[in-house]
Amino acid sequence: MENEYYYNETVTRFYDAVYENFPNLKIGSDFYLDEIRKTEGKILEAGVGTGRIFMPAYNSGADIYGIDYSKNMLDVLKSKLPVKEHHRVWIDDIRKFDTGDSFSLVISPFRVFQHLLTIDDQLGALNSIYNVLEPGGRLIFDVFNPDLKRLTTPVENVLEHEGEYLPGHKLQRYASVSYDNIIQQMDIKFKFIWEEGGLEKTDTFSTPLRYYFRYELENLVGRTKFTIENIYGNFNREALSNKSSDQILILKK
Ligand SMILES: C[S@@+](CC[C@H](N)C(=O)[O-])C[C@H]1O[C@@H](n2cnc3c(N)ncnc32)[C@H](O)[C@@H]1O
Questions:
Q1: Which letter, b or e, does each residue of 192-206 get, where b requires 16 or more Cβ atoms within 10 Å of its Cβ?
Q2: How far is the CA of 197 from the centre of ligand 1 (A)?
């Protein structure tokens, strides 16, 4: 399953260290944990990653499962889970999967849907998720709300994280971003610089990300059997507006 979108060893290794205290991420995880708390029945996280949200949900007693197509990311998640619970997470591609089980809630937090570049991929994911939901079940996912200024402003090597990945071991992440507004895609390149064994090491990770506009999302969902329950403009559940940072979709089966 290794392809251009695959989370490589380096981005996986530093994922938790970078995102642990990343600005504004906690409010998003609190939002999803709140939805999980309100749910009776099984929950699936589509694009579960290293378990940033899965682990606190599991630790608070949620009957939660997770899929991801990056083995690297799942290996990190499994290292946090007791072995007898490893059955809860497995490798799968959200564009085309079936679990043989059904869920009350599917979440796909932190821009997972932006990894779905084509309309076929997006519809594939929505339809696969629809099929594993119970009647009345919900899908919640977020994508960013495009900021028109940023879409015309490429950035080059901006230092956006500086900290330690282990006590005394420096980690920096630089980002370069370019935009193609015809295919609504941004290309992100991260450069990691870290200290290890007394040496400075470096590696990169690149990924294309799709960005979405509001009516595009509504049309996309209109091509599925889902109904739109709500679209929030941020994780405080405020309505979508010109100032919104996010588009958070709550869809119902
Ligand atoms: C930004 S991370 C988010 C991880 C986690 N949901 C979180 O909130 O930290 C995106 C994740 O989506 C996964 N992913 C992207 N496309 C996928 C696909 N088609 N099928 C399964 N997982 C996918 C990536 O491997 C990565 O782990």
A1: bebbeeeeeeeeebe
A2: 30
